[in-house]
Specification:
Layout lengths: L20 H7 L7 H17 L8 E2 L5 E2 L1 H12 L3 H15 L34 H12 L7 H17 L3 H9 L15 H20 L5 H13 L35 H18 L5 H15 L8 H17 L23 H23 L10 H10 L10 H11 L7 H14 L2 H22 L46 H18 L3 H15 L6 H21 L5 H19 L4 H13 L3 H14 L4 H13 L3 H26 L36 H43 L3 H8 L141 H20 L3 H14 L4 H13 L3 H14 L4 H14 L2 H13 L6 H13 L3 H16 L6 H4 L6
Function: Involved in endocytosis.
InterPro entries: Endocytosis_PI4K-reg_protein, TPR-like_helical_dom_sf, TPR_rpt
Protein name: TPR-like protein
């Protein structure tokens, strides 16, 4: 036989990239010593073997282009090269029989190993028996009969591997292992009966088959099987051109290496593709049963790096299932903050040049795009009554990633919208889409999808059970449904997982999923859209669904909690004087029931305390909020609520201590969160979870480990502590006078600036910025006992964001905010642009009238209105014992020095409203200190930030009254009512001006309506109404109003609860 020489480079150009026929032959190991025809037929045969052309009629061609069938190709190859045709002929017979195992058109590449039981632990996956084994037996016998002296060393190795392959096809796995065990694996992989890539393909096939034999033998050994599969992948380096591209997430961000990336094996290397995919699939299935998560991911990454270039129709079912396993592995592998990237990243190497979290996110994005392309090419819109299960499962997995990384929310939403075009009103997709849209502030779309979801579920349940009584109320009623039974905890399986209805059985969501989505929609309608009546309809439906069964006590507690919060909101927004006490009582009853069903819920106790406080039941409210702090002593809003309630009892020092404790704990938590969000190592190692198997013993994906409850956004956390410190300043003014309060207010502006500055956290870590904590009575440190509270282990339940009702409002840009200048002297360049507030830069004798506001007004339901957040001075002068009656009120208050001037930047509406409230608080303190000029400038700043804030115009009206400008005060108060017709401070201000002007009847008409509506709990309104009735000689009514005003004043908090705290806390 003529010796074959493997040339490393092309003789024409010394390059592997040459595409000339001679270069192709060179890559196949064909030497020119065999002659031109020999090289030609060797190249044809090698190409047929690499692409697995076993079923092709004419796998080769003559030099002139004529078709060559298998027999003729082998004859001519043997004639011109001296190669052994019997070895290749036997291989063709065995491989063709193996390929025929595929019984359907979808299995043209043989069994893909993705059947229902293929991934079960220790079980033999289904093997389709051969219809006839005669050809295979004859081929094996022929190989065994070949005299060794007639074979070269390379041919003997190929014959041995082909014989072992034949034993495997005949299901004689032990004989196959015996043959593989005696093989010389250290020999050159590129040397075979047909050298080059054909020989490497033969070796890859042998390793993959050896691994399957280890799994299927009489004494299975999955560890040895896994080693064989990994060895098969290592043989990629022996190919003439490495087919494994570097994934994009491992490349530098500015790299554009599409042209330089090697091309994965395609149709011309189909045999190689078959056994690479088999080896990687079986390796992934074995590794996924272990806790070696890094090895599992390396295998899956390698598989998908190769699969990215495969034809869409190649083993589509296998690729869909591997995609699902890949996404599950990625979800479980979310790295903790500051973690280093494990190396190597692939089975063949690979090093990431970015941090672990950045690399993880880039890998997830690429995996999602790959999955989308795969399912677009391998699935279609289902027929009536059928499901597109791969797309639904993909959408389900994709929707989980935002729980780990909030920045992936938009990617997940885009894929869910795409999924709706490949299936028909999937309950799962609509449910997931509702939850994600609700977190992004897209309220209109979220509401539309939520209503469609509820309608779809109810219709499906009605179709399944025509006697079902579950339905959405047509309108809200004052009647309140009660739970008729106490639901039991969900049954727990042997693995400790709660049993639940399968998601895709008939595309019917479980009762728990339905109830939880109803709660999401309820919160959306109340907090984001401000429609309490609609929210109550869906909360009631959730309660009805609980009575259907299958709901745990914790979920039932959530339903009761939501009903209580919605009812409390209705008592404030939509109730008259008859309905209000009923709604309040119902709200408290629901919330008390929630605390009974789940006594470990700090949030339920917070909501109960809020409802009791709103109903002026201060002592029960204090008891409830202390229970909340026992369960979660790091809840800033619970500390804030405690401080507010203590002011209602007159315990101002205790309230100040509560504020100090809340601020201290917030700062400690914020440092830890800053390190986590900055991807820095954390001392406590939060986020590290022990690895666990991805597959159950039955080969089914295990329910993913729930991601930790996501922290609220940076702005929401900042808002909670800013509101707490605003309350702290009100208390400080009461106890220590406006002078000290204004100094702390300046510190609060500095705190706001530092925390909203772009990149502030990184800068603070680098420069070691000192804390801006107010050095007063220090609260408890992390882990120290809280006064009056027993120390407990806590699980943080972070507050959830509360957004504006207008869907067009953009989300907060938390990183694009600069320092707040607090420019008390730098207004000349800006004031001419604002035509409402009189400027101190000009003569004080000239005052501009309040103009009619824009038609695009902030809805009254916006939770961020914080209308009276300027503390006790935001409305009419209070008769409460607050800072206005402080012992220090007569002391001379000096204003703080002007801060340095900095450039003003555009802020998001939520930030502008919060900053406006800060300026209004300063304006009120300046006014009470007798500093009218500084007060007016602060009002101008507030109007610049948020001209549609009605509290701005109330402060301007109060300022004008103090300056004896009655007409201007009238216009300012009137504008506050134009912005919000039911705004109590504005109505009280107008009514008092009417009383001063002698228009008693007008004042009475305005106040009578106010106290029946939104001003029912405003002492100033009742006090002024008492004065009006006294002037009308209605002494009994005047006494009644005065007593009620006194009752409200005795239970009044230093700031109104809706202005200081969100109604809904999560």
């Amino acid at each position: 036989m003529t010796a074959l020489i493997c040339l490393p480079t092309c003789i024409n150009c010394s390059s592997h990239l040459c595409n000339t026929p001679s270069a192709t032959m060179s890559r196949l190991g064909v030497g020119h010593a065999a002659g031109t025809k020999g090289a030609h037929y060797t190249a044809n045969l090698g190409s047929a073997l690499v692409r697995g052309a076993w079923a092709e009629s004419n796998p080769g061609a003559t030099p002139s282009g004529g078709a060559l069938p298998w027999g003729e190709l082998l004859r001519k190859w043997g004639k011109h090269t001296g190669g052994n045709t019997e070895v290749v002929g036997a291989l063709r017979s065995i491989a063709a029989a193996d390929l025929r195992r595929g019984s359907t058109r979808d299995e043209v590449d043989g069994p893909d190993g993705a059947g229902p039981d293929a991934w079960a632990h220790g079980a033999r996956w289904a093997r389709t028996p051969l219809s006839s084994t005669d050809d295979v037996k004859a081929a094996v016998q022929g190989l065994m009969a070949l005299p060794p002296t007639k074979l070269s060393e390379a041919e003997r190795r190929s014959a041995a591997l082909t014989s072992a392959y034949g034993f495997y096809v005949l299901a004689d796995y032990d004989s196959a292992l015996s043959a593989y065990g005696s093989f010389e694996w250290t020999s050159d992989a590129a040397d075979g009966v047909v050298p080059g890539d054909a020989a490497v393909t033969e070796r890859v096939r042998a390793r993959a088959v050896q691994g399957m034999c280890f799994e299927l033998a009489s004494r299975p050994d999955t560890s040895l099987a896994l080693q064989c599969y990994i060895e098969a992948i290592k043989l990629l380096d022996k190919l003439s051109s490495h087919p494994l591209p570097t994934p994009a997430y491992l490349q530098p961000a500015n790299a554009n290496s599409a042209a330089s990336r090697p091309t994965p094996p395609g149709v011309d290397q189909r045999e190689l593709m078959r056994y690479l995919s088999t080896a990687l699939t079986r390796a992934a299935a074995i590794a996924a049963h272990t806790s070696e998560s890094h090895l599992t991911l390396r295998i899956l990454r390698t598989y998908h790096a190769l699969a990215a270039g495969w034809p869409p129709t190649f083993r589509a079912r296998q690729r869909q299932r591997m995609l699902s396993l890949y996404l599950a592995a990625l979800f479980e592998a979310f790295p903790p903050a500051g973690a280093t990237v494990p190396e190597p990243y692939l089975l063949s190497g690979g090093v990431a040049n970015r941090t672990a979290r950045v690399t993880w996110r880039a890998e997830v994005v690429e995996a999602l795009r790959y999955g989308q392309r795969l399912l677009e090419n391998t699935t279609a819109f289902p027929e009536a009554g059928k499901l597109n299960v791969p797309v639904i499962q993909f959408a389900d997995q994709v929707s989980l990633f935002p729980d780990h990384e909030r920045s992936l929310t938009r990617d997940a939403i885009a894929i869910l919208w795409w999924a709706t075009s490949l299936t028909f009103q999937s309950q799962l997709i609509l449910r997931r889409l509702t939850c994600l849209l609700a977190t992004t502030g897209e309220t209109i779309e979220a509401r539309r999808v939520f209503e469609l979801y509820v309608d779809t579920v109810l219709k499906a349940r009605l179709a399944e059970n025509p006697e079902s009584t579950l339905a959405l109320q047509r309108q809200t009623t004052i009647e309140d449904g009660e739970l008729t039974d106490n639901p039991n905890d969900e049954p727990i399986d042997a693995n400790g997982h709660a049993n639940k209805d399968p998601v895709l059985h008939g595309e019917m969501d479980s009762n728990k999923d339905f109830v939880m989505t109803l709660l999401v929609g309820t919160r959306l309608l109340l907090s984001e859209i401000g429609d309490a009546k609609e929210a109550w309809r869906y909360a009631t439906l959730a309660g009805d669904a609980v009575r259907q069964g299958g709901i745990s006590r914790k979920v039932a507690a959530l339903v009761e909690e939501n009903k209580g919060v919605v009812r409390q909101a209705m008592s404030t927004k939509d109730a008259d004087r008859v309905e209000r006490p009923k709604y309040q009582a119902q709200a408290i009853n629901h919330l008390r029931r929630a605390t009974v069903l789940d006594p470990t819920s700090a949030r339920a106790f917070y909501h109960l305390a809020y409802a009791e406080g709103a109903a002026r039941s201060i002592q029960p409210a204090l008891q409830a909020v202390r229970e909340a702090l026992e369960l979660d002593d790091h809840s800033v809003r619970s500390w804030h609520l405690l401080a507010l309630l203590l002011t209602a009892t007159g315990d101002w020092e205790g309230a100040l201590k509560a504020c100090e404790a809340g601020v201290t704990l917030w700062e400690a938590d914020d440092e830890a969160l800053a390190a986590e969000e900055g991807d820095l190592p954390t001392v406590n190692g939060h986020g590290v979870t022990p690895p666990r198997p991805l597959l159950s013993p039955q080969g089914v994906l295990i329910t993913p480990t729930p991601a930790p409850i996501p922290h609220p956004s940076r702005f929401r956390r900042l808002e909670s502590v800013i509101q707490l410190r605003m309350t702290q300043n009100v208390i400080t003014e009461k106890l220590r006078g406006p002078d000290i309060a204004l100094e702390q207010q300046q510190e609060l502006f500095l705190f706001f600036s530092q925390r909203t500055e772009k990149g502030e956290r990184d800068e603070r870590r680098r420069s070691g910025t000192i804390s801006t904590r107010v050095p007063s009575i220090r609260g408890p440190s992390r882990g120290s006992p809280v006064p009056g509270l027993a120390p407990t282990d806590v699980t943080v339940q972070p507050p959830s964001p509360t957004r504006a009702a207008t869907p067009a409002r953009p989300p907060v840009n938390e990183s694009a905010v600069e320092d707040e200048p607090r420019r008390l002297h730098h207004k000349k360049s800006l004031l001419p642009k604002h035509l409402h507030v009189p400027s101190v830069a000009r003569s004080h004798s000239h005052t501009r009238s309040a103009s009619v506001p824009s038609t695009t007004l902030r809805p009254e339901s916006v939770p961020k209105s914080r209308a009276a957040s300027a503390a006790s001075g935001s409305g009419a002068p209070s008769i409460a014992p607050t800072a206005v009656h402080s012992h220090y009120a007569g002391a001379g208050a000096r204003g703080p020095p002007p801060p340095p001037v900095k450039q003003v930047v555009r802020r998001a509406p939520e930030e502008e409203r919060l900053l406006s409230d800060l300026w209004l608080m300063s304006a009120a303190s300046f006014r009470r200190a007798g500093k009218l000029e500084q007060s007016l400038v602060a009002i101008e700043e507030a109007e610049t930030r948020d001209p549609e804030n009605p509290a701005v115009w109330v402060q301007l009206g109060l300022w004008n009254r103090m300056a004896d400008k009655v007409e201007d005060a009238q216009m300012a108060f009137t504008k506050s009512l134009l912005l919000r017709p039911d705004y109590p401070p504005g109505a009280v201000g107008v009514a008092r001006l009417h009383v001063t002007a002698g228009a008693i009847d007008l004042a009475h008409s305005l106040l009578s309506q106010l106290v029946q509506d939104r001003g029912w709990d405003v002492p100033e309104a009742w006090f002024t109404l008492s004065s009006v009735c006294e002037r009308q000689d209605r002494h009994a009514r005047a006494r009644e109003c005065l007593l009620y005003a006194l009752q409200l004043e005795r239970t009044r908090t230093c700031r109104a609860l809706p202005d200081a705290l969100p109604r809904w806390n999560e």
